[in-house]
Amino acid sequence: MPITRNALRVLVLVPALLFIVTGVRWLIAPAGVAPMLGMTLGEGVGLSSQVGDLSGFFLTLGACMLIALISGRRVWYYPAIMLLAIAAVGRVLAWLLHDAALALHLIAPEVIVALLLLAAARYLPGED
User: Quick one: three-class SS letters along the chain?
Assistant: First the structure.
Protein backbone atom coordinates (compact mmCIF):
# COMPACT_ATOMS: atom_id res chain seq x y z
CA MET A 1 0.00 0.00 0.00
CA PRO A 2 2.76 2.55 -0.75
CA ILE A 3 0.41 4.80 -2.73
CA THR A 4 -2.06 4.91 0.14
CA ARG A 5 0.69 5.67 2.63
CA ASN A 6 2.09 8.41 0.42
CA ALA A 7 -1.39 9.89 0.02
CA LEU A 8 -1.83 9.80 3.80
CA ARG A 9 1.51 11.55 4.26
CA VAL A 10 0.43 14.31 1.88
CA LEU A 11 -2.93 14.58 3.65
CA VAL A 12 -1.04 15.16 6.90
CA LEU A 13 1.58 17.45 5.37
CA VAL A 14 -0.88 19.92 3.83
CA PRO A 15 -2.73 20.87 7.04
CA ALA A 16 0.57 20.84 8.97
CA LEU A 17 1.95 23.49 6.64
CA LEU A 18 -1.30 25.46 6.78
CA PHE A 19 -1.23 25.41 10.58
CA ILE A 20 2.38 26.64 10.59
CA VAL A 21 1.56 29.44 8.15
CA THR A 22 -1.41 30.42 10.33
CA GLY A 23 0.83 30.48 13.42
CA VAL A 24 3.40 32.67 11.69
CA ARG A 25 0.62 34.97 10.48
CA TRP A 26 -0.52 35.38 14.10
CA LEU A 27 3.02 36.53 14.91
CA ILE A 28 3.55 38.94 12.03
CA ALA A 29 0.11 40.00 10.75
CA PRO A 30 -2.62 39.12 13.26
CA ALA A 31 -5.14 41.54 11.74
CA GLY A 32 -5.19 39.44 8.57
CA VAL A 33 -5.70 36.08 10.26
CA ALA A 34 -8.09 36.97 13.09
CA PRO A 35 -11.17 37.25 10.83
CA MET A 36 -10.56 33.68 9.60
CA LEU A 37 -11.50 32.57 13.09
CA GLY A 38 -14.36 35.03 13.43
CA MET A 39 -12.32 37.23 15.74
CA THR A 40 -11.59 40.89 16.09
CA LEU A 41 -8.26 41.83 17.54
CA GLY A 42 -8.16 42.81 21.14
CA GLU A 43 -5.91 45.48 22.53
CA GLY A 44 -3.37 45.59 25.30
CA VAL A 45 -3.12 42.34 27.22
CA GLY A 46 -5.99 40.87 25.19
CA LEU A 47 -4.01 41.33 21.97
CA SER A 48 -0.94 39.90 23.65
CA SER A 49 -2.95 36.84 24.67
CA GLN A 50 -4.40 36.39 21.19
CA VAL A 51 -1.04 36.63 19.46
CA GLY A 52 0.83 34.53 22.01
CA ASP A 53 -1.78 31.84 22.57
CA LEU A 54 -2.93 31.44 18.99
CA SER A 55 0.54 31.49 17.44
CA GLY A 56 1.59 28.93 20.06
CA PHE A 57 -1.45 26.74 19.32
CA PHE A 58 -1.00 26.71 15.55
CA LEU A 59 2.80 26.47 15.53
CA THR A 60 2.79 23.62 18.06
CA LEU A 61 0.06 21.85 16.12
CA GLY A 62 1.90 22.08 12.81
CA ALA A 63 5.29 21.31 14.34
CA CYS A 64 4.05 18.14 16.04
CA MET A 65 2.56 16.95 12.76
CA LEU A 66 5.79 17.64 10.86
CA ILE A 67 7.95 16.04 13.53
CA ALA A 68 5.77 12.92 13.35
CA LEU A 69 6.08 12.78 9.57
CA ILE A 70 9.82 13.42 9.47
CA SER A 71 10.87 11.30 12.43
CA GLY A 72 8.39 8.46 11.96
CA ARG A 73 7.64 8.61 15.70
CA ARG A 74 3.91 8.13 16.08
CA VAL A 75 3.86 9.65 19.54
CA TRP A 76 4.15 13.12 17.97
CA TYR A 77 0.69 12.80 16.41
CA TYR A 78 -1.02 12.64 19.79
CA PRO A 79 -0.39 16.20 21.03
CA ALA A 80 -1.80 17.49 17.72
CA ILE A 81 -4.81 15.19 18.03
CA MET A 82 -5.39 16.45 21.57
CA LEU A 83 -5.13 20.12 20.57
CA LEU A 84 -7.65 19.67 17.76
CA ALA A 85 -10.07 17.52 19.75
CA ILE A 86 -10.02 19.80 22.79
CA ALA A 87 -10.53 22.85 20.58
CA ALA A 88 -13.55 21.18 18.94
CA VAL A 89 -15.02 20.19 22.30
CA GLY A 90 -14.35 23.69 23.63
CA ARG A 91 -16.26 25.21 20.72
CA VAL A 92 -19.24 22.94 21.37
CA LEU A 93 -19.15 23.78 25.08
CA ALA A 94 -18.93 27.48 24.27
CA TRP A 95 -22.12 27.06 22.24
CA LEU A 96 -23.89 24.98 24.89
CA LEU A 97 -22.83 26.92 27.96
CA HIS A 98 -21.93 30.45 26.91
CA ASP A 99 -24.28 31.41 24.10
CA ALA A 100 -21.53 31.36 21.46
CA ALA A 101 -22.35 30.65 17.85
CA LEU A 102 -22.06 26.99 16.85
CA ALA A 103 -19.03 27.22 14.58
CA LEU A 104 -19.47 24.05 12.54
CA HIS A 105 -17.27 25.46 9.78
CA LEU A 106 -14.40 25.49 12.31
CA ILE A 107 -15.32 22.34 14.24
CA ALA A 108 -15.54 20.11 11.15
CA PRO A 109 -11.93 20.65 10.01
CA GLU A 110 -10.68 20.13 13.56
CA VAL A 111 -12.48 16.80 13.81
CA ILE A 112 -11.50 15.72 10.29
CA VAL A 113 -7.81 16.50 10.79
CA ALA A 114 -7.83 14.81 14.23
CA LEU A 115 -9.29 11.67 12.63
CA LEU A 116 -6.75 11.90 9.82
CA LEU A 117 -3.96 12.06 12.40
CA LEU A 118 -5.38 9.03 14.22
CA ALA A 119 -5.25 7.16 10.91
CA ALA A 120 -1.68 8.35 10.31
CA ALA A 121 -0.63 7.22 13.78
CA ARG A 122 -2.05 3.80 13.05
CA TYR A 123 -1.15 3.21 9.42
CA LEU A 124 2.02 5.11 8.62
CA PRO A 125 5.17 3.16 9.32
CA GLY A 126 7.19 4.37 12.22
CA GLU A 127 8.24 3.90 15.78
CA ASP A 128 6.08 3.93 18.86
Answer: CHHHHHHHHHHHHHHHHHHHHHHHHHHHCHHHHHHHHCCCCCCCHHHHHHHHHHHHHHHHHHHHHHHHHHHCEHHHHHHHHHHHHHHHHHHHHHHHHHCCCCCHHHHHHHHHHHHHHHHHHHHCCCEC
pTM (predicted TM-score): 0.93
| Domain span holding position 66 | 2-123
Per-residue pLDDT of the chain (128 residues; tens, 9 = 90+): 556 889 999 999 999 999 999 999 999 999 999 999 999 999 999 999 999 999 999 999 999 999 999 999 999 999 999 999 999 999 999 999 999 999 999 999 999 999 999 999 999 977 66
Nearest to 127 by CA among 77, 63, 59, 66: 77
Q: How many residues does the chain have?
A: 128
Residue 34 resides in a domain: yes
Number of independent structural domains in the chain: 1
- The partner residues of 73 in beta bridges, in order of sequence, read 127
